[in-house]
Design goal:
The complex is a heterodimer of chains A (about 210) and B (about 325). Chain A folds into 2 domains: about 5-85 and about 100-110, Glutaredoxin (3-Layer(aba) Sandwich), CATH 3.40.30.10; about 120-210, 3-Layer(aba) Sandwich (Glutaredoxin), CATH 3.40.30. An 8-stranded mixed beta sheet of chain A has the order 2-1-3-4-6-5-7-8. Helices cover about 40% and strands about 20% of the residues of chain A. Chain A is of the alpha/beta class and about 210 residues long. Chain B has helices spanning about 35-45, 80-90, 145-150, 160, 175-185, 205-210, 310-330; strands at about 25-30, 50-55, 70, 80, 95-100, 105-110, 115-120, 125-130, 135-140, 155, 170-175, 195, 220, 225-230, 235-240, 250, 255-260, 260-265, 295. The relative contact order of chain B is 0.17. The model of chain B has no long low-confidence stretch (mean pLDDT about 90). Classes of the chains: A alpha/beta (about 210), B alpha/beta (about 325).
Chain lengths: ~210, ~325
């Protein structure tokens, strides 16, 4: 079906030459009853075709119970970006539109042997020593959203207590309603506190730490 | 959702986002603001070999929250982020330009013959000349309920938030290009869209009005003011008043999109230069101001028409004026 334009394919092939660690895109899908399952799977397959270092695994949400449990997946479509290990980085819903930028940036970051966070952030993150779940509600038409998703995913890579999930709002209206999401990006911490996510890294981390302490 | 919503936006991260040689240096030119005007000034300054520092909260400015651009020459269609990326790449190819992002400049002052830019984190940078290209920000409506409900049903970015208002009744405040563009974003998603405008005509381009005028869910309310926004945890309604009859009405809605124009980010220079009633920096056709060595470019100035193309032209003029001013100084 080819969501990735030819010119983008060329750009990506070039970019993916800088990949360090191998990346595994683990897609949870189901042929029926899932709005963008097919498109998500197609997008990830196309991405995996662009680099030797990117592999893809596809699982069925209903039949592959073991994997669903292993990766703690509770809705689909879901994509895990796994590097050396599973850092707790998830995309729920299709990372198309502006979120494609988040997906590519996250692949680069997870693969990189270095952290892209500032030294100050890395220091601050040491304060987080309890499980912390970050849900970033986005839409595909939101130019500010990738910033929030990219930061949260970087934090998850840095600190094993942190799990980070992009949630494409329009595919999960019940979650949107439950969390009273009325603008994006909104960051929901531990299913409870929330703050607007359009922030520089430092303020993002400050808000996160304020929310859990 | 249509399939076009899946169109992939690929903005690859820059390898180098910030660079600065030595902050004790005296720059030939300080550029405050990294939108269309500021980045253009930087490119022209670099080509004149002026030692330049650009300081900005972000690179892109208002371009970052512009979804579709159809009137910037050379591109029949381009998104704000794509265009931003092209501007950035063009500026960053010149090593003579130092760039600091992620920080606001709070105040500009004079020190001997130099300009001093003081940032919010307490650092200061010195330049022989300075261009203020700080652009504009959203203008609030200033009605009861607005402050309390921002992020709870009040939105300033219809493109971002439209998908959250599927099947809901919403109000768009403002009948200019931004207001009507919001209606275009919402028309296939929301239920009723009340469009409230305090003028008796639409200020938007006729080509935009044409696209929405037949939409069944478009409910125009010309010559109306908004008196208050209601709601506790989220927006539940607004009260509007007819300017002609004085009649008040409360509309049950779940979302409000405020698109009533912009305010200039000019506070940082108010101690060294007087601003217009609208808060803009008065410039002449060469982007010069009443303070020699201080130039203004783009939306923060009195230049008529706030357009990307206009900001580009102003950025060029400001930079070349600064260059000529430096030549005379030495």
């Amino acid at each position: 079906m080819g969501l990735i334009k030819e010119s983008q394919q060329e750009q990506l092939k070039e970019k993916f030459k800088d990949l360090d660690e191998k990346i595994k895109l683990i897609v949870f899908t189901q042929e029926m009853e899932c709005q963008y399952c097919r498109e998500t799977r197609g997008l990830m397959e196309d991405l995996a075709d662009l680099a030797d270092k990117i592999d893809i695994e596809v699982y069925d949400f209903v039949n592959d119970k073991e994997k669903v449990e292993e990766y703690n997946i509770d809705k689909i479509p879901a994509t895990v970006v796994e590097g050396e290990k599973d850092y707790g980085v998830r995309f729920y819903g299709i990372p198309a539109g502006y979120e494609f930028t988040s997906l590519v940036a996250t692949i680069m970051n997870i693969s990189s042997s270095e952290s892209e966070l500032s030294e100050k952030t890395i220091e601050e993150l040491k304060k987080i020593d309890k499980p912390l779940n970050i849900d970033i509600f986005v839409t595909l038409t939101c130019p500010y959203c990738p910033n929030a998703v990219e930061i949260a995913h970087k934090l998850a890579k840095e600190n094993d207590f942190i799990k980070s999930n992009m949630i494409e709002s329009s595919e999960f209206p019940e979650l949107m309603q439950k969390n009273n999401i009325t603008s994006v990006p909104t960051v929901v911490v531990n299913n409870d506190m929330n703050f607007p996510g359009n922030l520089p890294e430092k303020e993002f981390v400050d808000n996160l730490i304020k929310a859990v302490t | 959702m249509g399939s076009d919503i899946l169109n992939l936006e690929l903005i690859l991260p820059e390898d180098e986002q910030e660079r600065i040689s030595n902050s004790d240096d005296i720059y030939d030119l300080l550029i405050i603001g990294g939108g269309s005007a500021g980045m253009t000034s930087a490119v022209y300054a670099a080509r004149k070999q002026m030692k330049t520092l650009l300081i900005s909260k972000d690179l892109g400015g208002q371009l970052l929250w512009t979804s579709d651009i159809e009137n910037y020459m050379g591109y029949q269609y381009i998104t704000g982020r794509e265009l931003t990326d092209k501007f950035k790449a063009q500026m960053q190819q010149f090593p003579i330009v130092d760039i600091i992002t992620g920080i606001n400049v709070e105040k500009i002052s004079r020190q001997d013959n130099l300009f001093l830019a003081l940032t919010e984190n307490g650092k200061s940078y010195r330049g022989k000349t300075i261009i203020i290209a700080t652009g504009k920000r959203y203008r609030p409506l200033n009605v009861p309920g607005e402050k309390e409900l921002v992020g709870k049903g009040i939105s300033y970015c219809a493109t971002c938030d439209a998908p959250l208002y599927k099947g809901k009744d919403v109000a768009v405040i403002g009948g200019g290009n931004s207001g009507i563009t919001s209606v275009i974003d919402l028309r296939n998603i929301s239920n009723n869209i009340y469009v409230i405008n305090n003028s008796n005509v639409w200020q938007a381009d006729p080509v935009l009005i044409e696209r929405i005028k037949d939409a069944e869910n478009f409910i125009p309310m010309l010559s109306h003011n908004v008196l208050a926004i209601h709601g506790k945890d989220s927006v539940t309604g607004i009260t509007v008043q007819s300017i002609k009859t004085g009649e008040q009405k409360t509309l049950d809605i779940q979302g409000v999109f405020i698109e009533i124009g912009l305010l200039p980010n000019s506070e940082l220079v108010k101690e060294i230069i007087s601003l217009t009633d609208l808060g803009e920096i008065m410039v002449d056709c060469g982007c010069r101001t009443a303070v020699p060595g201080l130039f203004g470019a783009g939306d923060v100035t009195t230049v008529p028409e706030k357009q990307i193309g206009v900001a580009i032209g102003e950025g060029i003029k400001a930079s070349l004026s600064a260059y000529k001013y430096l030549l005379r100084m030495t």
